[in-house]
């Protein structure tokens, strides 16, 4: 269910998407509300599920070489049970950052990250290539990340 956002909600949420560590005082410098009113709204966003999680986004360049791969999967079986099981199977993997059911020639698109080609091969062999719900898959290696954001335009 959509949460009804007013102009102040949009300003607070936009600021939090830039920096969720901002203090209520710093937010009140951007949004015309008192720090206590801002904290009440933030608490309500969390209670209502508008803020789904508070996370730290790690720059992969600082934790060793990684390869990102866009994996497109065409399913053999399209029953709700088979699709649901395969979706859950991928979602459990720590390598999978994004997994979406899509329209078009492929049924599922994932973005996954690996320490190298060997880890990628082991993942696809164990989780995709041999899975009974999969007809075929295609992997596209990311050459350069042009933009990355988790922010939702408000």
Give the topology.
Blueprint: H1 7-18, H2 24-30, H3 35-48, E1 67-75, H4 80-91, E2 96-101, E3 108-114, H5 117-129, E4 134-141
Antiparallel strand pairs: 1-3, 1-4, 2-3
Helix pairs in contact: 2-3
- Can you identify the CATH superfamily of the largest domain? Lrp/AsnC effector binding domain/regulation of amino acid metabolism (RAM) domain
Question: Could you give a short account of the major beta sheet?
Answer: 4 strands, antiparallel
As laid out across the biggest beta sheet, the strand order is: 2-3-1-4
What value does the Rg take, in angstroms?
20 Å
Structural class: alpha+beta
Tell me the fraction of residues in β-strands, as a range. 15-25%
In the residues, how many domains can be counted?
2
Q: What is the chain-wise order of helices and strands?
A: HHHEHEEHE
CATH domain topology of the largest domain: Alpha-Beta Plaits
Q: Give average pLDDT, whole number.
A: 93
Termini separation: 16 Å
Query: Poorly predicted ranges (pLDDT <50, ≥5 residues)?
Result: none
Q: Quick one: CATH class of the largest domain?
A: Alpha Beta
Number of strands: 4
**Helix content estimate:** 25-40%
Structural overview:
The protein is an alpha+beta fold and 154 residues long. The protein is built from five helices and four strands; from the N terminus they run αααβαββαβ. 38% of the residues lie in helices and 19% in strands. The chain has a four-stranded antiparallel β-sheet with strand order 2-3-1-4, with helices on one face. It is elongated. The protein folds into two domains: 7-48, Arc Repressor Mutant, subunit A (Orthogonal Bundle), CATH 1.10.10.10; 61-141, Lrp/AsnC effector binding domain/regulation of amino acid metabolism (RAM) domain (Alpha-Beta Plaits, 2-Layer Sandwich), CATH 3.30.70.920. The two termini are 16 Å apart. The mean pLDDT is 93. Helix 2 (24-30) crosses helix 3. It has helices spanning 7-18, 24-30, 35-48, 80-91, 117-129; strands at 67-75, 96-101, 108-114, 134-141.
């Amino acid at each position: 269910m959509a949460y009804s956002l007013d102009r102040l909600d949009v300003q607070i949420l936009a600021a939090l998407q830039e920096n969720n560590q901002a203090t209520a005082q710093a937010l009140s410098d951007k949004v015309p509300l008192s720090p206590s009113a801002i904290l009440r709204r933030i608490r309500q966003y969390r209670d209502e599920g508008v803020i789904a999680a508070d996370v730290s986004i790690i720059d992969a360049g600082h934790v060793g070489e990684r390869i990102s791969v866009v994996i497109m999967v065409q399913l053999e079986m399209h029953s709700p049970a088979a699709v649901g099981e395969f979706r859950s199977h991928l979602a459990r993997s720590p390598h999978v950052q994004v997994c979406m059911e899509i329209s078009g020639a492929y049924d599922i698109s994932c973005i996954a990250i690996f320490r190298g080609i060997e880890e990628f091969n082991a993942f696809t062999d164990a989780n995709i290539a041999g899975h009974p719900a999969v007809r075929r898959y295609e992997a596209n290696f990311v050459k350069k990340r042009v933009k990355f954001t988790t922010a939702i335009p408000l």
